[in-house]
Amino acid sequence: MGFGRDLRNSHEGLVKLQDWELKLLETVKRFMTLRVKSDKEYASLLLNISQQVDKHDNNSQIHYVSTVSKSWTHMVQQTEQLSKIMKCHAEELNSGPLHRLTMMIKDKQQVKKSYQSLHQQIESEMHKVTKNDLEKLKCTYRQLTKDAVLARDKYKEAVVKGKETEKARERYDKATTKLHNLHNQYVLAVKSAQLHQEHYHETALPLLLDSLQKMQEEMINALKGILEEYSEITSLLTDEIVKVHKEIHTSIDQIDPLSEYDSFIDVYKSPEAKEPIVEFDAALLEETENLQANEILWNNLTADSLQAM
């Protein structure tokens, strides 16, 4: 299967195909442009929140070695690193696949323009040789035939009358000569048209269509490469990004609840101080009767309240 063999009479279909492919490429270009924009914005947001968090942490008034703090700091640093990677990838996408896609669209437009121009050129030449030129010769052929017949009839009439026979014969020979010469010219033109027609159908048109197919296939291959590079650049499984997430995971694993506060205790521990023992203030009994320090008084005045306790 091929354009040159199977699409010789499918010019309109080929033009529609190229128009559709151009629209598709424009859609892919818009998609990649938006992806570059969104990735840059995402990278900027990651950097912004990392800097905001870092600023807050630097204002902290508590200073001790914390596994949570170390892990968190590392996570923030890796998030900032991720923002740099995302920004770099967005720039690579813009200067690589997106740029090449833009150039491809221009090339594709030029291919379409060249194909239509060449197709129109060989079609026009074909129409000229097999239609227009032959129609002109046929028209002249008919007129010269009429002239020759008229000259012949006048010559016969002159012979019958015996008047101006030589002149009539001369005009008849002249008209016949013109007709015969044109006949030969027409025969050669028909043969030329046949050869041109054969060349058009067997060589010129298939060659043009096969060339178009080759360029189409080369562009498809180039587009495949562009999409593959796009996939690689935007992948979240690249070594750089995987490394960032592994670093974050490792830092989280280093959080140890059992040793988290060891450093804090070392920094903020205080010497053990003996608190004075709480004792009954005997001075309270100096002006009382029947009351003893550290002893409950049970009598008919306190019985109800003691039972209620």
Our Rg estimate from Cα atoms comes to: 52 Å
Q: What count of domains describes the coordinates?
A: 1
Shape: rod-shaped
Task: Please give the largest β-sheet.
Answer: none
Number of strands: 0
What is the CATH superfamily label? Answer: Arfaptin homology (AH) domain/BAR domain
Residue-averaged pLDDT, rounded?
91
Q: Which structural class should the secondary elements be placed in?
A: mainly alpha
Unreliable residue stretches: none
Q: What letter string, H or E per element, gives the SSE order?
A: HHHHHHH
Helix content: over 70%
Cα end-to-end separation: 106 Å
Question: Architecture, according to CATH?
Answer: Up-down Bundle
Task: Fill in the CATH topology.
Answer: Substrate Binding Domain Of Dnak, Chain:A, Domain 2
The CATH class designation is Mainly Alpha
Number of helices: 7
Describe the structure.
It is a single chain. It is built from seven helices and no strands. It is mostly helical. It is rod-shaped. The mean pLDDT is 91. Helix 3 (67-161) packs antiparallel against helix 4 (165-234) and helix 3 runs antiparallel to helix 5 (239-253). The chain has a single domain, classed as Arfaptin homology (AH) domain/BAR domain (Substrate Binding Domain Of Dnak, Chain:A, Domain 2, Up-down Bundle), CATH 1.20.1270.60. GO terms for molecular function: lipid binding. Pfam families: FCH. This is Fer (fps/fes related) tyrosine kinase.
